[in-house]
Design brief:
The complex is a heterodimer of chains A (356) and B (264). By secondary structure, chain A is an alpha+beta fold. In chain A, strands 6-7-8-3-9-10 form a 6-stranded mixed beta sheet, sandwiched between helices. In chain A, strand 4 and strand 5 form a beta hairpin. Chain A contains 8 helices and 20 strands. Chain B is an all-alpha fold and 264 residues long. Chain B folds into 2 domains: 44 residues, no CATH class; 204 residues, MetI-like fold. Chain B contains 12 helices and 2 strands. Chain B has a two-stranded antiparallel sheet with strand order 1-2. In chain B, helix 6 crosses helix 8 and helix 8 runs antiparallel to helix 11. In chain B, 39% of the residues are buried. Classes of the chains: A alpha+beta (356), B mainly alpha (264). Chains A and B meet through strand 6 and helix 2 of A and helix 7 and helix 8 of B.
Chain lengths: 356, 264
């Protein structure tokens, strides 16, 4: 019952500002795609274009080849889980879940059977006759999911459905939704601003930036091979450093600077000249006075200015010149100690420097 | 010392509220009460009998008042439900002006407004008709009903309607099965306000309705002016009953969140 969703150069405007500037995306039947981005990137607008609540200015949206760009929301055979859950307070849990079936003119017995199935599947046993206002956040979230799934939708749309849950429940729900989606094989579009959530749940991640797609790929692709400095930063490689490189065969030569000695990094690819290099705090290493000189890696001379323990390792802020980098290390080091930030070639993501 | 002061204040307050009602009650059962007696010299239910006698004009007036109040309420609802929905949901650029128009009749002194209405109605033969009185009452009632209905609709999260559309409900179906049931408490409250306002209304009924249309307040007025203080007292007490009943209902129906959206 799952469907292919095609988004073809969709543009949308909101009160005069262009929110989507030509977004194209193909979603295969049964695929779980996460739309990831910071607030204002257009991810929610795209979801609302798909569901029919925001008019598409140009471009087309197709489901299994049928153009639904201008179809009213109730004729799209999609089901959405809203961020606020949007459960109807004047209906019981069972009435909420069964409403879509009632609209499809199913018999009372059919509705009751399907509602019972949903209640059992979503572990809402004993709550069917409750009023939705008496439920906890996690239970409401499951009722909203049940209401959407009860109608066997072709496409499931999730609008940040986990953002109102406690951090502790959220982890469980991620896996529950993912398992459910896999089992039912429903094409699913999930909007989120939470990188980890997108990584854990989605088959494919679409990173949106200012109304355009910055990168599409499997979680490990966008994580390990970010296509742009923006994606690298968004995926957690927040540390950025400007470097002047010279290619020498399969090596990159870094000229010595005020805070680093000259270094040679093994690297093949077409990186050359002035670049911005992004790296993650966990991919960098700390080299303390007395440690062996790092080989085949770039080393930046700095001083530890801040230390924190997020669990499992220490996270240090290291000042290099007038810049600060975050570096993780398992050792406990005092603030104020001189240390080098060691960057092996595989830790660095190179992008052409802006304005170079 | 403190509670003595408090009790004293309470007593004064109670006197101002309950004193007139107490006086009304005594008058309603006073068959003879001449100055300078403190209390009536003869008690009895003779005037209640007069009022409730099948041939009595009072009962006729009561039913007429209720009939007019019901018609007024219906008229106001027919206007205020669609208007309130449009004002709450539509992004109308002239929204504040529309709201102001509904307020306008309240901004001017009642008397000149009603005298002018009476003059206009005279040309259309509406004076002295139930329709005329209902229209006058509706002008007044629309202020409440449109404002409260707008607030009631505005208090509903649009995502609740979108959820219904999304799951397959057409626009009208969404309105009748989601929006309207959720707005109903506010709308019922506004209907009760309109009903009570119409039941008590005097000035407009007097200029447009009298003498053909004798609502209870008009009867009360002429009874009082004619020296029939007992009849006036009894009709006043009858008028109190629906007011008190409905005020209790309104308190249950009107939620704080609806009140907070009034006039937005």
């Amino acid at each position: 019952m799952s469907a292919r969703l095609e988004i073809d150069r969709v543009e949308a405007a909101y009160g005069g500002t262009r929110v989507l500037k030509g977004v194209s995306l193909d979603v295969a039947p049964g695929e779980f795609v996460a739309l990831l981005g910071s607030s204002g990137c257009g991810k929610t607008t795209l979801l609302r274009c798909i569901s029919g609540f925001v008019p598409v200015a140009s471009g087309a949206i197709r489901v299994n080849g049928t153009d639904i760009t201008h179809a009213p929301p109730d004729k799209r055979e999609m089901a959405m889980v809203f961020q606020s859950y949007a459960l109807w307070p004047h209906m019981s849990v069972a009435q909420n879940i069964g409403y879509g079936l009632r609209l499809r003119k199913k018999s009372c017995a059919q509705i009751a059977a399907r509602v019972a199935e949903m209640v059992a599947m979503l572990k809402l046993d004993g709550l069917a006759e409750r009023n939705v206002t008496q439920l906890s956040g996690g239970q409401r979230q499951r009722v909203a999911l049940g209401r959407a799934l009860a109608v066997d939708p072709q496409i499931l749309l999730l609008d940040e459905p986990l953002s109102n849950l406690d951090a502790r429940i959220r982890e469980d729900v991620r896996h529950e939704i993912k398992a459910l989606q896999r089992r039912l094989g429903i094409t699913t579009i999930h909007v989120t601003h939470d990188r980890e959530e997108a990584m854990v749940m989605a088959d494919r991640i679409v990173i949106l930036d200012a109304g355009t797609i910055a990168q599409v790929g499997r979680p490990e692709e966008v994580y390990n091979r970010p296509a742009s400095a923006f994606v690298a930063s968004f995926m957690g490689a927040n540390n950025a450093i400007r470097l002047d490189l010279a290619r020498a065969g399969t090596k990159l030569r870094v000229a010595s600077g005020p805070h680093n000695r000259a270094a040679e990094l093994p690297h093949d690819g077409d990186v050359d000249g002035k670049v911005t290099a992004h790296f993650r705090s966990e991919a960098a290493k700390l080299s303390l006075p007395g440690d062996a000189d790092p080989q085949g890696a770039l080393a930046l001379e700095g001083r530890i200015v801040q230390a924190a323990y997020p669990g499992g390792f220490w996270r240090y802020a290291v000042a290099v010149g007038d810049r600060q980098f975050m570096v993780d290390d398992e050792r406990r080091v005092e603030v104020g100690v001189n240390a080098r930030v060691v960057l092996p070639a595989e830790a660095l993501h190179f992008f052409p420097a802006e304005g170079a | 010392m403190k509670w003595v002061l408090r009790a004293g204040l309470l007593a004064v307050f109670a006197f101002f509220v309950l004193g007139p009602i107490g006086n009304l009650m005594i008058w309603s059962v006073a068959e003879q009460w001449f100055w300078p007696n403190r209390l009536p010299s003869q008690w009895g239910f003779r005037f209640w009998d007069v009022v409730f006698r099948p041939t009595g004009r009072a009962m006729e007036s009561l039913w007429l008042s209720i009939w007019i109040a019901l018609l007024t309420t219906a008229t106001c609802l027919v206007v205020s439900v669609p208007a309130g929905y449009a004002l709450a949901r539509g992004k109308l650029p002239w929204r504040p002006i529309v709201m102001l128009i509904f307020l306008l009749p309240q901004a001017f002194p009642n008397l000149p407004v009603y005298i002018n209405i009476a003059r206009i109605f005279f040309e259309y033969d509406l004076n002295g008709t139930v329709a005329g009185v209902v229209m006058v009452h509706a002008v007044h009632g629309l202020v409440f009903s449109v404002w409260i209905a707008t607030a009631a609709f505005a208090a509903i999260d649009p995502e609740l309607e979108q959820a219904a559309r999304n799951i397959g409900a057409s626009g009208p179906r969404t309105f009748f099965e989601v929006t309207l049931p959720l707005a109903l408490p506010g709308i019922v409250a506004s209907a009760i306000f309109v009903f009570l306002e119409s039941l008590d209304e005097f000035t407009g009924s007097y200029f447009v309705g009298a003498p053909e249309i004798r609502t209870l307040p008009l009867m009360l007025y002429s009874a009082g002016a004619g020296g029939n203080i007992q009849i006036a007292a009894i009709s006043a007490l009858i008028l109190l009953v629906p007011s008190i009943l409905f005020m209790l209902l309104v308190e249950r129906f009107l939620k704080g969140e609806v009140l907070a959206k009034m006039g937005r």
